Amino acid sequence: MNEKKTNKLKILNDPIYGFITIPNILIYNLIEHPYFQRLRRISQMGLSYLVYPGAHHTRFHHAIGSVHLMQKAVRILKFKGVQISEEEATAVYIAIL
Where would you tag: which of 24, 50, 57, 60 has the fewest CB atoms within 10 A of its CB? Predict the structure, then answer.
């Protein structure tokens, strides 16, 4: 049987960083896991959203933004000539989640 792999490339719209691309299917599957999805219910800023209604950020948003910044860091390091394999890049993305 010839199994066709589907590309589950996901793009998220973040209020701070704009569009964030999930780098590979492993990271996508980790983000889709129910344990990771629980982060949507944990507030990053405590009760400050009661005073500042626009300041409602969750641990989920924080983790996704961290992956985005790590993608930028890996891209810059590769541009500067640092040898980073795809496995190493994936490992740092998982670590920052």
Answer: 50
Cα separations in angstroms, 28 against 8, 10, 14, 33, 78: 7, 7, 16, 9, 22
pTM flag (> 0.70): yes
* 21, 51, 56, 88 from 91: Cα distances, Å: 17, 38, 29, 5
- CA neighbor of 84 nearest in space, from 24, 26, 76: 76
Q: Which residues does residue 11 pair with via DSSP β-bridges, in sequence order?
A: 21
Distance CA 64, CA 22 (A): 9
The torsion region of residue 81 among left (phi > 0), alpha (psi -120 to 50) and beta comes to left
As a whole number of angstroms, the distance between CA 91 and CA 44 comes to 24
